[in-house]
Write a structure and sequence with these properties.
Blueprint (H helix, E strand, L loop, with lengths): L1 E4 L3 H5 L2 H13 L3 E4 L8 H5 L3 H14 L6 E3 L2 H15 L5 H10 E3 H9 L11 E4 L3 H7 L4 H7 L5 E2 L15 H4 L1 H17 L4 E4 L2 H14 L4 E4 H5 L4
Parallel strand pairs: 1-2, 1-3, 3-4, 5-6, 5-7, 7-8
Helix pairs in contact: 5-6, 5-8, 7-9, 11-12
């Protein structure tokens, strides 16, 4: 199988090592990976902020960046969920109707792709640490992820997963919400990180780096004894 690699803005600009680890685990799973270096933003931030004309322009380019009828796999439930669910509002009954239909059916978040498309749950990873899992709003509610990440973590050698209280509650990032509503956003991050600390975990794990970036900023500011890590970086560890 050949897949097209989708690297979201956050990964490209802030966490490039996660993008490299995504390639590593896809190849470990027996998949050939193609990468189009011309790809840019999927348009989610503009869309969620009400700038639909700008989102449509970005989305139109995104459709052209992924012209092949094959899986498009990325390390972000947020971006993949946006393409799956919101491109219909941008492109239904437009000149890009057929292109968006093709892309939507081929768009996958990495844990969903591994577990539900490839049937892979054990990559031979090793990560001897106690972790707790943050269900991102986009992953849980927009994309529909439920057990996939936990199934993969359960097969990581040495890893102990401890669930936090209110694990399904938002961490306060919410894209531009964290900018427009700073005080509320910080208070939500404080609550989320405190629940993680209560588990005595060493790491907070998630499928979305945007959430993890938000929580890590609060952790750094308060100098707290916990770190964040994307699930892709765990799955690429130890081999």
């Amino acid at each position: 199988m050949t897949v097209d690699l989708f690297i979201p803005c956050f990964v490209d600009q802030v966490y490039p090592e996660t993008g490299m680890n995504l390639v590593k685990i896809l190849r470990k799973a027996g998949v050939d990976v193609q990468y189009n270096p011309e790809q840019t933003c999927c348009g989610q931030m503009a869309f969620n902020s009400g700038f639909w004309d700008e989102a449509k322009k970005l989305g139109g380019k995104f459709l052209k960046d992924f012209p092949n009828d094959r899986p498009v796999v990325g390390p972000s439930a947020s971006c993949a969920g946006f393409v799956r669910n919101s491109y219909q509002e941008l492109f239904h009954n437009t000149s890009n109707h057929l292109e968006y239909k093709r892309l939507v059916k081929n768009m996958y978040e990495i844990t969903d792709f591994l577990v539900n498309q490839l049937g892979v749950i054990d990559l031979g990873a090793s990560f001897p640490h106690k972790v707790t899992f943050h269900d991102s709003c986009a992953g849980l509610r927009e994309y529909g992820l439920k057990t996939e990440a936990r199934m993969l973590l359960s097969k990581v050698n040495g890893l102990e997963l401890v669930e936090m209280e209110n694990r399904h509650v938002c961490c306060g990032f919410g894209g531009t919400f964290s900018v427009k509503n700073e005080a509320i956003s910080v208070a939500m991050a404080e609550q989320k990180v405190q629940h993680a600390l209560d588990t005595e975990a060493e790491y907070i794990v998630s499928t979305d780096l945007s959430c993890l970036m938000h929580q890590q900023a609060y952790i750094n500011k308060q100098k707290l004894p916990i770190r964040t890590i994307h699930i892709v970086d765990i799955l690429a560890s130890g081999w």
